[in-house]
Amino acid sequence: MDIPYTVTARPDTGLYNAKVGIWLFLASEVMLFGGLFSAYIFLRVGADYHWPIHELNVQLGFINTVVLIASSVTVVMAWAFLKLRKFGMYQLMMAITVGCAAIFMVNKTLEYKAKFEHYSVKLTDGTILTGHLEHGYFVHFKDVNKLTLNVHLETAAIDADPVDYVLPYIEGEAPKFKTEAGDEIELNAASFAKLRSEAIDAMRKENENKQFQRDWTGTRNIVLTPVAPFKLKLPASSFFSYSDTNATFRDGTIAEGKLEDDRMTLDVDGIDVRSVADAEKSMAWEPDYLPAFKPVFIATRDHHQSEFKEKYPSRDPSKSATLQTESYFLKIHSANAEENMPGHEGAHSAEAQEPKEASGHEVTEAGGHAGGHHPVVVLKKKDISFFSNFTPKLNTYYAIYFTLTGLHGLHVVFGALVLLYFLVFNGKMMREDPEHLANRVEVGGLFWHFVDLVWIFLFPLLYLL
Amino acid sequence: MADNLEEIQKSVKKYLVIGGLLLLFTVITVWLSYVELPTHGMNIMVGMIVAAFKASLVALIFMHLNHEKKIIYKVLLFTVILVSVLFVLFYMTHGDPLVFEGFDKTSIKHH
């Protein structure tokens, strides 16, 4: 079937059909992004924390803005050159457009990666430490001498699956286990399936005499005793909860042993005391943590505060978001406290700029240099109220940041794929029916401009303001 | 729609100029965001005005909305009305007892 009016205008609308189609689609796209921008406003108005301003990589965001604007120019020029039958220029412009889309996505990937590797740790007094967990964060158990598996008769949300949920976290070789019956087994998929079916059979047997289904008991514990005690190394995502004597895994299995270590080693690159009632008494300055940076903090704060008072004598310093960030969110660029003093800034900034140029590399290389660049603290678990990398779960700002930029990124990818298709597969149409292809490119271009248009609002809202 | 070849020839130059303007206003946006206006709300306001100006350049010139057929404007009229509703929805929160009182440490303390 041929769709009519691909080249000539339909008499009633005065347009070729695809043009009406794309505008209807774009209208619905405006509503889609409009809803998310509306969500942004709600989240920002209702935020009970300091909304991040200039916290993302502004340089990278700026470069991406330039790249998108350039691609918008080239895609509309591609259309114009096609209209003028300058095929070579048309192809060049389309190729540049797709290339720009690729650059945009590479930058986006670097940006996301840096966020995923960066952590925010909130202490119980509201102090937030940001930095890197160079060796991850693990809870260590030793002398584990008992596993209790909880098996359900019927399908349950949480059912014992120690092979997938417990075994991967045993340090070294997994030992053999003794069952309640006294057999010595190696814990694997087959042996667990056997234990499980035995438990289920036993439950069924017990239920045989019960008249009503509601009286059936549907759960039973299987206890396994290791022949030799073992150690566990648990990433934060592997357990529900733990205490000094046991850990509960995500499949409901309980391991009993001794908590050996649950401290967190953080390479600190920022101390945020904006939400601490008395910033000078923040836990960050405690003797075990970063006492050397307290004088740096005080000097930096006083420096910015007095500068602000001089410049804007009539303004209320507590209402300036930038001043609050400058004076209560200490950025650390060197493990040596002295070098972080405000006086040092001028001398240091030239050096500090260099690694920032290639911000993608900065993070990946941090592993090697981190010890020299940032102070390391060992945080007691009882002092930590929450920690997360910079992902949607950190706060509502990062939730809406990833939602909006993620959806926008998908639009970039699909828009570029469509344009690439026109460039690669519509060569015959270009030669035989260039008007038709010009209309296709115009419609694809309209979508592309819309993607640029969304970014024009996203960049200031997420990066700058 | 400019189907006149001569006009299209001219518009190629126009697109480059608009691209340059967009770049210039992007730099201005970044610069303005570092200027300390009396309130941060003003920074946001100014930033959005510049963004709206850039967006209208893209819509009018690149998307050819400066000379489009009537039916497109009809569709967009409804879109503009509906999306404006989305943007003012948050005014409903003004009846909310949670009121932002600036970054005052003491109010956070007694939370």
Indicate the structural class of chain B.
mainly alpha
Summarize the main sheet of chain B. Answer: none
Q: What count of domains describes the coordinates of chain B?
A: 1
Oligomeric nature of the chains: heterodimer
State the gist of this model.
Chain A is α+β, with helices and mostly antiparallel strands and 465 residues long. Chain A contains 12 helices and 15 strands. In chain A, strands 3, 4, 5, 6, 7, 8, 9, 10 and 11 form a 9-stranded antiparallel beta sheet that branches.
Description:
The complex is a heterodimer of chains A (465) and B (111). Chain A is an alpha+beta fold and 465 residues long. Chain A contains 12 helices and 15 strands. In chain A, helix 6 packs antiparallel against helix 7 and helix 10 runs antiparallel to helix 12. In chain A, 34% of the residues are buried. In chain B, helix 1 packs antiparallel against helix 2. Chain B has one domain. With 111 residues, chain B is mostly helical.
Outline the secondary-structure elements:
The complex is a heterodimer of chains A (465) and B (111).
Chain A: H1 17-45, H2 58-83, H3 87-116, E1 119-123, E2 128-132, E3 138-152, H4 162-165, E4 170-171, E5 177-178, E6 184-185, H5 189-208, E7 219-226, E8 230-235, E9 239-242, E10 246-249, E11 254-261, E12 264-272, H6 294-311, H7 321-328, E13 329-331, H8 345-357, H9 359-373, E14 376-379, E15 384-389, H10 396-425, H11 427-432, H12 434-464
Antiparallel strand pairs in A: 1-2, 1-15, 2-12, 3-7, 3-8, 3-11, 4-8, 5-6, 5-7, 9-10, 10-11, 12-13, 12-14
Helix pairs in contact in A: 1-10, 1-12, 2-3, 2-12, 3-9, 3-10, 6-7, 10-12
Chain B: H1 5-33, H2 40-62, H3 70-88, H4 105-109
Primary descriptors:
heterodimer, A: 465 residues, alpha+beta, Four Helix Bundle (Hemerythrin (Met), subunit A), 3 domains, 9-stranded antiparallel beta sheet, 6-stranded antiparallel beta sheet, 12 helices, 15 strands, 49% helix, 18% strand, B: 111 residues, mainly alpha, 4 helices
